[in-house]
Amino acid sequence: MKDTYQTIETPTIGEYKAKGSKFIAYAFSVQNKQTIKDRLEEVRKEHNKARHHCYGYRLGLGKDEYRANDDGEPSGTAGRPILGQIDSFGLSHVLIVVVRYFGGTKLGTSGLKTAYKAAAMEALQDAAIIEKIVKEEFLLTYSYAATVDVMNYVNGIEIDIKNTEYTNDKSMMTVAVRLKEIENFTTTIAAITDVKCDLHTS
To answer: Could you give the 3-state DSSP secondary structure of residue 146?
Structure first.
């Protein structure tokens, strides 16, 4: 099971100029559509006098969730070239917004495609590209008597322990498990002790 993807570590900016028009590209790492909406709103507020705020994004492990928006430019001249650069760099969970300040001279469809592509590429060229591992959080609830067995297991594998809590009769632990390890993790947790260990998505 694939549970990793390539994205950018921090936001970056790129710029391209053509015949007086200025194209400013903002690249962001995004997790969901709400994050995309928030970043778009930030850019639009910062550049509220710009004529166009075109963008492209791709989400998902399978890179199957995407959108290309021309924001008033001729169809296919802005959003698709932007999205094309995200794909060219092999990225997911990335949004690129390109702001255009019109310089008074029309560029034509070919010129627009070149400009939006170049601006997006400039934003990604200096970006630090990192690999992200997708994990799912679980809340374990088990008998206090099973604590040693559970701790010995989780300390011997690659897992993120988010929180632990103990009471007189039970223990609770929130952990983050990478997707491809979930089946093995849930099976082993249930087998390492005779005490039933309840597993719930956190």
So the answer is: helix
Per-residue pLDDT, 95 = 98
Are 10 and 94 found together in one domain? yes
147 against 19, higher pLDDT: 19
Q: Is the pLDDT score of 196 beyond 60?
A: no
Asked whether residue 22 falls in the same domain as residue 105, the answer is yes
72's CB contacts (< 8 A; 6+ apart) are 51, 52
* Residue 197 one-letter amino acid: C
Does residue 186 sit in helix, strand or coil? helix
The CA–CA distances, whole Å, from 10 to 7, 26, 96, 145 equal: 9, 11, 12, 44
Q: Is 52:100 a contact under the CB 8 Å cutoff?
A: yes
* Beta strand residue intervals within the chain, DSSP E: 4-8, 12-18, 21-29, 52-59, 65-69, 94-101, 129-133, 135-143, 160-166, 170-178, 198-201
Domain count of the fold of the chain: 2
The DSSP bridge pattern shows strands 4-8 and 129-133 to be: antiparallel
Per the structure, the complete domain to which residue 142 belongs is given by 134-201
Same domain for 116 and 178? no
Please tell me the distance from the alpha carbon of residue 103 to that of residue 111, in angstroms, as a whole number: 13
